[in-house]
């Protein structure tokens, strides 16, 4: 429908096995995106009947139906509870939820500290073993120099010490 560069769409019921532009069972509405706001007309009674017998709207048609308010339950006018009526029932639940959250946070914090301590100890051991290996290699160089009668070469770590 529509003219060139002026689209107007029909909302139709069709068999899924028929081609896109093929045979139509029933036209249940139309959509004109060019008006401000867009015009969406869908026969709610017929649309809901087809859905009740197993028709499945496409994603686009479902969005159009939602925008048009088709199939949404009509809001019932009910008296909302006052704050005083709702508060006493919610207080114990809120306290219990807060206490549970504190327990979860404390439990999460304890393993994290336990993980950090061994990691720090392992890092300290790695640094200690690295410095031990450096001093061992310096000692080996000094022993080689003594055996050969040469004077040991000053290393950067020796110059700073």
Order of helices and strands: EEEEEHHHH
Fraction of residues in β-strands: 5-15%
CATH class descriptor name of the domain at 2-68: Alpha Beta
List low-pLDDT spans. Answer: none
- What is the general shape? elongated
The number of helical segments is: 4
- What is the level-2 CATH architecture name of the domain at 2-68? 2-Layer Sandwich
CATH T-level fold name of the domain at 2-68: S16 Ribosomal Protein, Chain: A
The biggest beta sheet, please? 3 strands, antiparallel
Architecture blueprint of SSEs:
Blueprint: E1 2-3, E2 6-7, E3 9-13, E4 26-32, E5 39-42, H1 44-52, H2 59-68, H3 83-148, H4 156-160
Antiparallel strand pairs: 1-2, 3-4, 4-5
Mind explaining what this structure looks like?
With 161 residues, the protein is of the alpha+beta class. Among the domains are: 2-68, S16 Ribosomal Protein, Chain: A; 97-140. It is 56% helix and 12% strand. It has four helices and five strands. The strands form two sheets. A three-stranded antiparallel β-sheet has the order 3-4-5, with helices on one face. Strands 1-2 form a two-stranded antiparallel sheet. The radius of gyration is 39 Å and the shape is elongated. The protein starts with a strand and ends with a helix. The mean pLDDT is 74.
């Amino acid at each position: 429908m529509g003219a060139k560069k002026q689209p107007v769409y029909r909302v139709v019921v069709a068999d899924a096995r028929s081609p896109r532009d093929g045979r139509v069972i029933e036209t249940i509405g139309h959509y004109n995106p060019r008006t401000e706001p867009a015009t969406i007309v869908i026969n709610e009674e017929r649309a809901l009947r087809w859905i009740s017998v197993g028709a499945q709207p496409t994603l686009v048609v479902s969005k159009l139906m939602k925008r048009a308010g088709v199939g949404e339950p009509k809001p019932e006018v009910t008296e909302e509870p006052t704050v005083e009526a709702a508060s006493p029932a919610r207080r114990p639940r809120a306290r219990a939820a807060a206490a549970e959250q504190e327990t979860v946070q404390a439990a999460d914090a304890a393993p994290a500290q336990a993980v950090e301590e061994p990691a720090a100890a392992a890092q300290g051991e790695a640094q200690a073993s690295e410095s031990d290996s450096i001093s061992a290699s310096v000692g080996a160089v000094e022993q080689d120099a003594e055996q050969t009668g040469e004077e040991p070469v000053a290393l950067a770590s020796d110059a700073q010490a």
